[in-house]
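User: tokens in, sequence out, please.
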């Protein structure tokens, strides 16, 4: 788990309170958590080159140590389908940021694979003052935000506990498929829960982790946004 340690140490040394999305995703990758393909561009030419490599459609996002909620400041553009759109989007994001957050230091622009929409789930971790690292699971969007349909377990998780977490949310039947929606890969969610448990157990400097959303497919899953907050 060398790269993960290096990333976390570097951020702490720089006095940062959260990891940049590409850093958080690199940490996730080291623990086998599936994430969208991504690259960080620092010029428009590079942005197009990376988009060509990743394949269209792509998503562009601002990478900045002073921006934690990227879409709030016009820092996320989804579904860009051509080199031209990437060039335009690159400029657009810089313009949006200069309007919303003038003094923001910009590390680069994240170019990433656009994950096809599907059933969305959330995996989170917090550090409970009494119990230590604790995992959270729920279905995305209104299920978490409005209905608070989430479940918690103290880490480290066993496979049985990961399975229980998934089964005990009220929205569980949605994962089993309904009408035109095919069943979601529950095994892939279980793996993510177990890997996240391992990650937060081995890195107690993580105060909060948020994989939100994770797109779950019939086969496999993909983390679209990852946030890691440091102690
Ligand atoms: P924020 O920092 O505002 O939370 P996100 O990275 O979550 O920014 O992007 C905002 C939204 O854009 C996501 O919740 C998701 O709906 C969509 N999105 C972001 N990245 C992708 C992607 N790679 N594929 C598909 N949708 C995406
Ligand atoms: Mg997000």
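Assistant: Sequence out:
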């Amino acid at each position: 788990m060398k790269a993960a340690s290096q990333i976390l140490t570097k951020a702490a040394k720089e006095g940062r309170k959260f990891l940049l999305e590409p850093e958080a995703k690199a940490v996730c990758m080291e623990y086998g958590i599936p994430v969208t393909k991504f690259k960080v561009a620092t010029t428009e030419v590079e942005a197009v080159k990376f988009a060509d490599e990743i394949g269209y459609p792509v998503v562009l996002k601002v990478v900045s140590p002073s921006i934690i909620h990227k879409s709030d400041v016009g820092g996320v553009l989804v579904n860009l389908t051509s080199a031209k759109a990437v060039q335009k989007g690159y400029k657009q994001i810089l313009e949006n940021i200069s309007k919303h957050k003038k003094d923001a230091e910009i590390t680069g622009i994240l170019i990433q694979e656009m994950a096809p929409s599907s059933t969305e789930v959330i995996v989170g971790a917090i550090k409970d003052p009494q119990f230590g690292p604790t995992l959270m699971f729920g279905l995305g969007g209104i299920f978490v935000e409005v209905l608070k349909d989430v479940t918690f377990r103290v880490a480290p998780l066993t496979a049985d506990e990961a399975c229980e977490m998934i089964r005990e949310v009220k929205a569980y039947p949605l994962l089993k498929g309904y009408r035109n929606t095919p069943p979601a890969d529950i095994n892939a969610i279980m793996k993510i829960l177990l890997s996240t448990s391992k990650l937060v157990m081995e890195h107690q400097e993580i105060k909060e982790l948020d994989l939100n959303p994770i797109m779950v497919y019939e086969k496999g899953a993909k983390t679209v946004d990852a946030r890691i907050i440091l102690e």
